[in-house]
Amino acid sequence: PEGFPPLRNEAAVRVLRGRMKGIQGHCNSCYMDAALFSLFSCTSVLDSMLFMPFPLCDRDVQGILRDEIVNPLRRTGFVRAGSVMHLREQLTDKGQCSSFTNAEKDPEEFLNLLMQQILGMEPLLKLQSGGRQQDSYCYQIFLDKQEDLVVPNVQQLLERSFLSSELKLVEIPSCFIIQMPRFGKEYKMFSKIIPSLELDITDLLLDSPRECCLCGDVATLECS
């Protein structure tokens, strides 16, 4: 199958900037449009989803995702709403939910259906909390109101979310999909969030050797 590389640097600006660019929204598709744009427009980390024959892989869905959404996005910078609706119709047929074509969903629900049930991918994240391991495809940041954070960055939100939930990464993930704090029309926890172009996960890794902040030797105890 034909493939187009992700957009980088000047090419990304040239192809994606301007009117009628990105993924066209229609009928509560914003959650899916934003997720697909983030996963594929400027990175190839998840390109295996477009080509690999996973154990449960549905070739129809894979073909729509590759040929009608990702390739046009990378080639022209625009995906029409009908292409996304075609994918939504397939998700409705393959999944257990009849409202994928008209209702707004949580991005995590969409990713779990696509990656786990339709493509049969292995989980991307291995997390541990309270001695129990849990596998997932993405991580949603959950936080109580943080009075000292007015305009936070992703690094700060991720660290505080892991700390409050007593979570650790069992291993370095091959791909770390992070969903920002949710908000509705009436309330936003943060008016803006600054993207962190790099993430330091040293303190989030389970059993990762780290330096003692007092003596400089390898630390043996961790204080939250």
Automatic annotation (TrEMBL):
InterPro entries: Papain-like_cys_pep_sf, USP_CS. PANTHER family: 40S RIBOSOMAL PROTEIN S3A. Keywords: Cytoplasm, Hydrolase. It comes from Cephalopterus ornatus (Amazonian umbrellabird). This is CYLD hydrolase. The keyword Cell division does not apply. GO terms for molecular function: cysteine-type deubiquitinase activity. SUPFAM superfamilies: Cysteine proteinases.
